């Protein structure tokens, strides 16, 4: 499937990557073991899946503007999550229903074919608020049989097909097969500013019927973005990114939150949502998506935060943002543990002494209270009540974040050139952030901890 606009956009993307790629690649804050855009902007992971021998990672890609711009679906694939091939974008904003952006969505894989469901964004010209009027959020389907190009693209649902009490904000389809049928959840915002998820079902992947709505008895934010609904060891979990949740103590510290509800009952009928738990307490984690990889469930998140007050100096070098490392999700009762996938450990090189640590993987055995100072820029402190992450230098507006933890038993820290992922107590709590220390700085100072540190190798990307 191709049209004149797509061909022109493909040539423009190739040109901008060729002309600006070297400047981005020379940035000392370029990451070593995280997926990034070759140039421009990255946000939500999309269409994560395993199709045959390939893992596919798509992402929101604005190649022409490191501060955003019109979105495509950027594309990486890998056989082992370590060696990656950068492919041309899978989806371009080249249809009447997605002309202002190919927004987030998911992948369904059947018989070697990828069915890519996404939101097509249209903003009509005029004096609109783009909440209650002026925006088309269209659910569309692109089909790829070779995993590289889309053979077809079609409009499935538009604003008039959604329930009448909703605003124009309906987006981010997550689709899966179950019990001989297909199910889809969509994030939504009602006209009285209440967040909820719509459940749709289908027999043929193309004709969809609204069958249920998932929400909380009391209002919990005004919009639930990027939904994900799945089962772990017999327990269902509903992951979403609610906007408009007010901070309560050490909860909901970011402008927007991200987490999950345990779901009891049946999402297709009677159900109850349990207590909401945040997936990450750091500065930069949003819009995660998971997929089944055999018996395990893997998740990538966007290492960023929309509408945040803090910034990233990489914009000056023509790029911004990255994805998290792939993490495996595990069930612990009604909670989710998030731990780096086993492939991440394969990047470990030689053991390092703390004073030379710069890009590293560190496992710590901790005492009741202690602190780490990483590259003179990030300070991690804990006692018997909470853990804090303070960016004393290189935070670019990031200051301090807290996690409520009765006792810190162990820590794992993944430190890349410009990011930290801190896994507390086997992934019961996680803190993710970008940070920008002096590129020449190195070293970890520690109190109340004994650590084993490995130098980390780089992902191989061609």
Could you explain the architecture of this structure?
- It is a single chain.
- With 462 residues, this protein is mainly beta.
- Helix content is 6%, strand content 52%.
- The protein contains 2 helices and 32 strands.
- The strands form 6 sheets. Strands 23, 24, 25, 26, 27, 28, 29, 30 and 31 form a 9-stranded antiparallel β-sheet that branches. A 6-stranded mixed β-sheet has the order 20-1-2-3-4-32. Strands 13, 14, 15, 16 and 17 form a 5-stranded antiparallel β-sheet that branches.
- The two termini are 25 Å apart.
- The model has no long low-confidence stretch (mean pLDDT 97).
In short:
It is built from 2 helices and 32 strands. The chain has 462 residues and is mainly β.
**In this structure, how is the largest beta sheet organized?**
9 strands, antiparallel
Please count the helical segments.
2
What is the terminal separation in angstroms? 25 Å
What integer is the average pLDDT? 97
Portion of residues in beta strands equals: over 45%
Helix content: under 10%
Please give the radius of gyration in angstroms: 21 Å
Shape: globular
Q: Would you report the number of β strands?
A: 32
Counting helices, strands and paired strands, the structural category is mainly beta
- Low-pLDDT stretches: none
What's the SSE blueprint?
Blueprint: H1 4-25, E1 40-51, E2 54-62, E3 72-78, E4 83-91, E5 102-110, E6 113-123, E7 135-144, E8 152-157, E9 166-178, E10 181-190, E11 195-202, E12 209-214, E13 223-232, E14 235-243, E15 259-265, E16 271-273, E17 277-278, E18 286-293, E19 296-302, E20 319-320, E21 327-332, E22 335-340, H2 342-345, E23 348-351, E24 360-374, E25 378-382, E26 386-391, E27 400-404, E28 410-416, E29 419-424, E30 429-434, E31 444-456, E32 460-461
